[in-house]
Each structure stands twice: as structure tokens, then as C-alpha cells.
Amino acid sequence: MRAVILVGGEGTRLRPLTYRAPKQMLPIVGVPMLERVLANLAKHGVTEAVLSLGYLPDRFIAAYPDHTVAGVHVTYAVEPSPLDTAGAIRFAALDAGINETFIVVNGDVLTDLDVTRLIAFHRERGAEATIALHPVDDPSRFGVVPTHPDGRVIAFVEKPPRDEAPTNEINAGTYVLEPSVIETIAPDVRVSVERQTFPALVERGSLYAHSDDSYWLDTGTPQAYLEAHRDILESRRPVSLTTPVANFNWVHQSAHVDDADLSLATIDRDCVVGANATIENSVLLPGAVVHEGATIRDCIIGPGATIGRGAILEATCVIGGGVTVPAGSILRGEVRLGGPE
């Protein structure tokens, strides 16, 4: 089985972290998000994948020069210009020469979806395309998908008001597609799979959907990125780790932590944390330095960033790579420090 991985987005909501790296290359407890996505697909028989690249494509290519990610052989399809979701799927599938049933996933969604079961459902229904669904409390930020009892999609409603949503089953960002879907997508122009391709398939009666309540998280915001780490530290999502979680904290073996107070802290490789510092529900990316007495709560500290002595950072600060926060600073709220290089 082959897959198309959509990784072309700019990750604007995670800036300034995504000025230096695509969001799918940001680590989730020490492992790039992309690797965690492909590791789940590999469990379900995906052996080859094409990365649909648009933003900072060289970062992916440099990171995996042997064309292998989590045991999956990968190739790279770099869009000449932004083509939106359906356009990106078409471009990548043709670039890879895909001519059989294939999987499409959004590279910024972490899930333990049973892809094998989704493929079986797709084939049982004789579907042209099948969407994985996931139930949520508030569907207003997503595309919701009401279905007939057999799973055939009635409509595709993008981001409805919460009190008007016809269902709480949302598009979970994993699809099984037949090659015929590619033929419906116009070439060399922006085409949205959610707003154009799927509604057209609804009219043909060939779009199906299947619900799965396994772990699912869209990591596109700082709050969700922190939640992804917290879920692993609290064992709500079992994953492989190079260093085990201890007391609900994860500290890379190369990091140096003095006598600090840690609670739901992720301390990545080569980080340094000084004495009497407090790190709560926060992520320190590789090479970050937190000096003595600093307090960091509900924040993300970028790679190589430095937090000065006695500084206080609280929800939800995102500090870009290489940025220095002076000693004694007090930062609270939606603070973003750092810009493009």
C-alpha cells in the first residue's frame, strides 16, 4: 500500500517555531511528528509514501537523504506553486506514479487510526473515496460529515457553527482514494479536496465515511502541540521513546537538569535547566537553555533559545529558535517572540 502525505502547509499558527522548520518536522517527545505519522501507517502495511512538499521542502529532503522515514520508503514531490489540498494530492500521486488504491493523510495529525479497517470498509462499500471520521465535542473548527446508515456521505459541511452542525463526526484527515479521484481534479490550479472534490463525489454517490474513536489530535496550535506531549507523558497515547518517561516528565539523556522542579515537562536533547527553575506543562526543544530560578508554565521554548535568570513565562508563550529572553522578564498570554531568519 502506498500513501500521499500532505506536508506543504506553512504552519502559521505555530510561528515562530515554523519559521525555521516545517511543523511536521517539529518533535513530539523527541521524535519528529512526520516519523510518528508514518510509524502508524507502517503498522498497517504502508511501505511507500510520497511527501507532498511546498513549504521549506529542503528541510525534509536534508533530514531523510536515504529516502526512509520510520521504515517507510519515501519520495519527494515539490509543488511548483501552492495547489491546495486536492491539487497537492493530484500532483504527488502523479509524480509517484500511483495507479492503485492509496492512502492520503495530513502530516500534522497524530492518530492511532486503524487504517487496515478503514481500507476494508472502503473495499466492502465499493467506494471511490472514503474519509476517516472522528467524534469531537466542538465540530465548528472542522469539516463535519453526516452519513447514511451504510456510511455513504450525505453532505460535506466545512466548519459549521457549533449549534448548526448536523453531526459531531468530523473529517479526521485520513482518506482512502481510488485513482479515478485524481481524474476529477483539475491540473495546475488550486483545488480544495474539502470544498470541491468531496462535494462532487457526494453528488456521484461514491463518497463514504467510517468513524473511528481511536486517538486523534490536530497539532496545529501551540495548545494542541503541548497537549500531544502531555498525552504521552500521562500515558494516554503509548508511543516508542528513546528515553522513558519518569514521574510524568521526559528528559533526553543528553540534557542537563540541575535541581529543578519539573511537572509534565519535555526536555529535549542538549537542553540545560538551571537550579531552582520550574518547568510545568512545557516543551523545551533541542539546545534550549533555562537559567537559574526561571519559571516556565504552558509554554514552548524553541531550539537554542535562552531564558534568563528569574524570568517568568506563562500561558501561552512560544519562543522562537535562538531567541534570548532577558533575566527577570515577565511574559504572559499569547506571546510570540522571534521572526524569520
What would you note in describing this structure?
The protein contains eight helices and 28 strands. It has helices at 17-20, 33-43, 57-63, 84-96, 115-125, 179-183, 193-204, 222-233, and strands spanning 2-6, 27-28, 31-32, 48-53, 68-69, 72-78, 102-106, 109-111, 129-135, 143-144, 157-158, 169-177, 207-211, 216-218, 250-251, 256-257, 261-267, 272-273, 278-284, 289-290, 295-297, 300-301, 306-307, 312-313, 318-319, 324-325, 330-331, 336-337. The model has no long low-confidence stretch (mean pLDDT 93).
CATH homologous superfamily descriptor of the largest domain: Spore Coat Polysaccharide Biosynthesis Protein SpsA, Chain A
Uncertain segments of ≥5 residues (pLDDT<50)?
A: none
Q: What fold name goes in the CATH topology slot of the largest domain? A: Spore Coat Polysaccharide Biosynthesis Protein SpsA, Chain A
The amount of beta strand, in percent, is 25-35%
| Shape label | elongated
Total helical elements: 8
Name the helicity range: 10-25%
Average pLDDT, rounded to a whole number, is 93
User: What CATH first level of the largest domain would be assigned?
Assistant: Alpha Beta
Describe the secondary-structure layout.
Elements: E1 2-6, H1 17-20, E2 27-28, E3 31-32, H2 33-43, E4 48-53, H3 57-63, E5 68-69, E6 72-78, H4 84-96, E7 102-106, E8 109-111, H5 115-125, E9 129-135, E10 143-144, E11 157-158, E12 169-177, H6 179-183, H7 193-204, E13 207-211, E14 216-218, H8 222-233, E15 250-251, E16 256-257, E17 261-267, E18 272-273, E19 278-284, E20 289-290, E21 295-297, E22 300-301, E23 306-307, E24 312-313, E25 318-319, E26 324-325, E27 330-331, E28 336-337
Parallel strand pairs: 1-4, 1-7, 4-6, 9-13, 15-17, 16-18, 17-19, 18-20, 19-21, 19-22, 20-23, 21-24, 22-25, 23-26, 24-27, 25-28
Antiparallel strand pairs: 2-3, 5-6, 7-12, 8-14, 9-12, 10-11
